[in-house]
Structures are given as structure tokens and as C-alpha cells.
Specification:
The chain is of the alpha/beta class. It is about 30% helix and about 25% strand. It is globular and about 65 Å long.
Length: about 400
């Protein structure tokens, strides 16, 4: 029921309202988007602004929403068992399960420790925990943010978080700073982010790349300590935001849809699983060629898989995929940057189209950045309406 699943359900009905019946299984009655979550941490959005319900989708007439958890998938018999005990039969199954974390790769930390050291990489309560910690921190403290290695959900997300937490500190705790301990040596829109950091936050942000001591080797949640590989340097920040390495959610792995990478290989034209026919995997869990793991990608994939399934049901040719991803990031409430790309299906893979899309110019004035910030909010309103109705 997130960006991919809700979109797929809505567009399946839209593309063939007469013959296709759709059941959307989603445990939450209110869905909180991760995109936009950093605005909440920055102090200029409320959790209610990120909350979306399913009433516009659950109107009967061939589309119903079941608020339950899908526990097991039986690919051979084409059934899904729900936690409430009921079984759903299907002709085609779309899975948009999102991510889980590779906790076994994190020395000293497990799932239960996220209450103490939040990852805030899934919407809702994790964001509330991190914001409460920021609010409780004394002025003059340090917030350590630890982004994971690739691939992971929303590549620019950690750096927008760095920006907007720095904005919150500048407004409310001006003697505080942000320390970024990064598993990587480079990141999405790096030049644009770092220029924005210099302009808005001066020396409040310190970014440490992985090869220079940023790669985290151990976390001690109770002590609030983090250790990095380069000489096993110890850091004890006042607030620690650690995001673990990622993979497809557990239900996809239990259904044997993921390969050794932890992600789900699919036919990148139809998003049908390469491991089990009749199951389509979209969104963050899927291996989707050059497309990044983002809300916009999932939304586009939801529309594309709906078109592919309707074509298969009708016995017509499956359309050639043409999809886009747009990723807006706020460095401050009135300072926005973006990157966009177009993807086509070529040689069995989704590849980016040369010369299409683009990135915000490096040399832009304050008015240009302000307009992009306003486009960011407009994008959020438009895409959530497209997803949830």
C-alpha cells in the first residue's frame, strides 16, 4: 500500500475497470510517506502532513482494501496467507514489500536497538523517536548521521536529512553540529548538497567519507557510541541516527523471490519475477536496472506493471516501458535541488536515456533555489494524490 502498491492497485482498475478485480493488502490504515519525512525532522512539517489514508481507493466496484498483513506467499498454488488467517487466491500477484535491514551485518546492534538508535528509514514512529531526541538534545551537542553503503532506499535521502537537521539546529540549537559518518566516498547530488551546506550552514556540517574514517564498524546503542574502521575511531554523539544496510523485505525472501544480492530480479519490461511466474515485484525490493530506489520510481513502476498485467489479461502486446524518476531535495525550506532521468527498456534492462532529464545547475541564484523548493512541495502534493487518490 505504499508508493508502488497503491499506485498499481489504482491503475489496474483504471486501465481495465470491467474485467480486473483488485485486492490491496496493507496493514496500516494511515500510511506515512518516507519522502517528506526529513521536513518533519527539520521542524517545518507535521506528521499529519505525511499521513495518507485509503478511503479514496476502497470504494468497492472491483477494488477493495484489506487492512491485514500478508504473511506467506504460495507461488505454486497462487495464494497469499494473511496474518488474520484468511487466504487470498490470485491470478496475478503484485508485491511492493519495500525494504528490510541486514542487521546481521551490524556489529553490536539489532532490530530492538532501533528504539534507542533510530534509523528513521521507514515512515511513522521512527521519525517521531528521532525528532524527540533532537528536541531533547542540549545546545552545543552533536548529531551523528550514518548513511549506508549502496544500494539503499532513496540515495539522496541521508543528505537531505543532514541538511534539514542542520536547519533545525541553526534555528533552535545554534551551537550544535552535524557529523556525517558515511560508508561511501561519494553520494547523490554531492556537489549541490555541499554547496548548499556552505551557503546555509557554514561549518555546522562535517562529512567524513568511508575511506577516511566514515565507515562504521560497530555500534554500542546503550552507550550511544559508534566506532569507525579507520583506526577504530570512537564517537559518542548526543544523537545517533544509524541507517543499516538494506535488502528486500522478509516476505519477498520467504517467497524465494530474492537472489544472493538480497533484492528481487525481475523481467524489467513487465516486472514479473524471474524466479516465480505470475508474481510481479515493484518498488524498492526490485532490481530495476538503472532506476533508483525512490518513491517516484515506485509510482512509475506501479503504472507500468498495471499496464503490463492488463495487456497480459487482454492478450494484447505488452507496451515498451518508458518511465521517469524525479528526485527533489530540500537543503533548507526555501532552497531546493533536483535530479531527473528517463528510462527505456533496451537489451532486457531499464537504462537511462542519454540527454533526457538533468540536474539542477551548480550556478543558480537564491530565486532559482527558492522556486525548486516550491516545486518540491508541489511534487509531493501531486504524487501523493496520484498514489492514494
Amino acid at each position: 500500500g505504499g508508493a508502488g502498491g497503491a499506485t498499481a492497485a489504482r491503475y489496474l482498475r483504471k486501465y481495465d475497470p470491467d474485467r480486473v478485480r483488485v485486492t490491496l493488502v496493507e496493514p496500516k490504515k494511515q500510511y506515512h510517506t518516507c519522502f517528506g519525512g526529513n521536513w518533519y525532522l527539520g521542524g517545518f512539517a507535521d506528521m499529519a502532513d505525511l499521513s495518507h489514508g485509503y478511503k479514496a481507493l476502497d470504494r468497492g466496484n472491483g477494488l477493495r482494501v484489506v487492512h491485514d498483513t500478508a504473511e506467506e506467499v504460495d507461488p505454486e498454488n497462487r495464494k497469499v496467507r494473511l496474518s488474520g488467517g484468511s487466504m487470498l487466491a490470485y491470478d496475478r500477484l503484485v508485491m511492493a514489500p519495500g525494504i528490510d535491514f541486514r542487521w546481521e551485518e551490524v556489529d553490536g546492534m539489532g532490530p530492538a536497538d532501533a528504539e534507542q538508535v533510530p534509523h528513521a528509514w521507514k515512515g511513522g514512529e521512527q521519525y517521531r523517536i528521532l525528532r524527540r531526541q533532537l528536541e531533547a538534545m542540549d545546545d552545543g551537542g552533536t548529531v551523528a548521521i550514518c548513511p549506508p553503503a549502496n544500494p539503499f532506499r532513496c540515495p539522496p535521502g541521508p543528505y537531505e536529512r543532514v541538511s534539514l537537521i542542520a536547519h533545525y539546529l541553526k534555528q533552535n540549537k545554534p551551537r550544535s553540529k552535524v557529523l556525517v559518518l558515511d560508508a561511501k566516498d561519494s553520494f547523490s547530488k554531492q556537489g549541490l548538497f555541499q554547496e548548499g551546506w556552505r551557503q546555509l550552514y557554514g561549518d555546522r556540517i562535517e562529512w567524513v567519507p568511508g575511506s577516511e574514517g566514515g565507515l562504521v564498524s560497530r555500534v554500542e546503542p546503550q552507550a550511544g557510541k559508534v566506532f569507525t574502521q579507520e583506526g577504530f575511531q570512537e564517537h559518542t554523539p548526543d544523537v545517533l541516527n544509524f541507517t543499516p544496510p538494506q535488502r528486500a523485505a522478509a516476505i519477498a525472501r520467504r517467497a524465494d523471490l530474492a537472489d544472493r544480492t538480497g533484492w528481487c530480479p525481475v523481467n524489467q519490461k513487465t516486472f514479473e519475477s524471474e524466479r516465480h511466474p505470475g508474481i510481479h515485484v515493484i518498488g524498492d525490493a526490485a532490481i530495476a536496472g538503472a532506476m533508483p530506489k525512490s518513491g517516484h520510481s515506485a509510482n512509475n513502476q506501479g503504472k507500468m506493471v498495471a499496464a503490463a498485467i492488463v495487456s497480459l489479461v487482454q492478450g494484447t502486446a505488452v507496451p515498451e516501458p518508458s518511465m521517469a524518476n524525479t528526485c527533489y531535495s530540500l537543503i533548507g525550506p526555501e532552497y531546493g535541488i533536483s535530479v531527473a532521468a528517463v528510462y527505456r527498456h533496451r537489451g532486457g534492462k531499464l537504462v537511462s536515456v542519454e540527454g533526457a532529464g538533468g540536474v539542477s545547475p551548480a550556478e543558480a541564484d537564491a530565486f532559482f533555489r527558492m522556486r525548486e523548493a516550491r516545486f518540491t512541495r508541489g511534487w509531493y502534493q501531486a504524487i501523493t494524490q496520484d498514489i492514494f487518490g
